[in-house]
Amino acid sequence: MVKKYRIAVLPGDGVGREVIPEALKVLDSAAEAVGGLDFDYVEVPCGGKYYLKTGLEWPDDGFETCRGADAILFGAVGWPKAVLPSGQLAGIGILLDLRFGLDLYANVRPAKLYDGVECFVKGKEAGDVDFVIVRENTEGLYAPIKGSLERGGKREVAVDVRVLTRKGCERVIDYAFRLCLSRRGAAVDGKRRVTCVDKSNVLEGCRFFRKVFDEVAEKYGSVEKDYVYVDAMTQWMIRTPERYDVIVTTNMFGDILSDLSSVLIGGMGMAPSGNVGDEHAMFEPVHGSAPDIAGREVANPIGAILSAKMMLEWLAQKHKDEACRKAAEAIERGVADVLADGKIRTQDLCYGRYADVKPSKTSAVGDAIAQRIRKMEN
Predict the structure, then answer these.
(1) More confident site: 344 or 150
(2) Is 226 a catalytic residue?
């Protein structure tokens, strides 16, 4: 019996419209390879270009379409001159609507260095970098509690309020420990380890986050607890990435650290992510819309393809679906094989040992991974 999943697809702006079709191409090849799996894609137009055309960030029924889907695959939003009257880029509100409206409380960003990708940090090879940053996603400094004061037509004060709740801290920390139990441990020693990243030597909210971390950790005696201040983490994560397994932190700290981690894996084009809740989930590459290279077929689609792999893993867990699990493994192997082969890669990966490789188009990378997956069934 074939299991069919309804996937809301939001390509958005810029290179999002180039990398998401490659992710769908690879998803379909994985579904064909494992059998018993099918996808119904429902595209939702959105983003800056859509706003310039319609005056809306997305259709009135966009949120309901996403809520009714089994999962969401998101590209990127943001386009020059597409700015709301508030000054915010058109399309950013969609991400916030989905994160808050669907209660996607855990932002999950893996950092894995593949064979065939040269690390920007000297001496680090595939196998040295394989950790996950879990970032709280619905509160912290990005909670919509903000404002400014104008006097005499001049803005004098701006305020953003950071909010940490027990519920918000408990559930994202618990998610991080549960995720850790599903992994193989840190690269350096194989130990399952969750690292709490905060600024508890200065900030009251961080002292609260660390206290809740300790309380939740009591349920997971087999997992090692670890603590690092966020400023120190910007050094240690780059110098000794092999020591880390799962990192959990608050919203803004996680946003910054997860972008920094892309230095270890070949750049932002390689970085996938998931926004996960108890009932819903959305998956997206980290890189953004990149208007400066849009339309040139040079964007790296692997971040989007690995985001689709994460989506399959989430569906497999939620629905106990073995076909989804096998399809996710097929995508992982397909990506790994194409990268290790070293011949097909976009321009962002043509450096160091691979500087002489002729850059491939976005679609050529998607084709190569899809073809490699199809060959797996032979």
Answers:
(1) 344
(2) no
Whether residue 256 is found in the same domain as residue 134: yes
- pLDDT confidence of 377, banded at 50, 70, 90? low
Cα separation of the two ends of the chain: 22
Which of 50, 114, 142, 244 is an active site residue? 142
CATH number at residue 52: 3.40.718.10
d(CA 176, CA 162): 21
* Catalytic residue from among 259, 318, 321, 351: 259
Catalytic residue among 255, 337, 348, 367: 255
Is 0.90 surpassed by the pTM of this model? yes
Is residue 272 situated within a structural domain? no
**Residue 70 annotated as catalytic:** no
Closest by CA to 229, choosing from 249, 256, 208, is 249
Contact of 221 with 252, CB cutoff 8 Å: no
| pLDDT at residue 86, as a whole number | 84
Range of lowest pLDDT (79-88, 132-141, 178-187)? 79-88
Find out whether 211 and 172 touch, Cβ atoms under 8 Å: no
From CA 60, how far away is CA 356, in angstroms rounded? 49
Residue tagged active-site, from 25, 199, 309, 326: 199
Token couple for 271: 């970085």
Q: For residue 89, what are the domain limits?
A: 1-105+277-378
**Could you tell me if 261 and 308 lie in one domain?**
no
Six token digits for residue 375 = 């060959």
Per-residue confidence (pLDDT) for residue 378, from 0 to 100: 45
Q: What is the mean pLDDT of residues 268-290?
A: 97
Compute the mean pLDDT over every residue in the chain, rounded to the nearest whole number: 96
Q: Is 115 a catalytic residue?
A: no
Known active-site residue 259: yes
Q: Which residue out of 40, 214, 231, 278 is catalytically annotated? A: 231
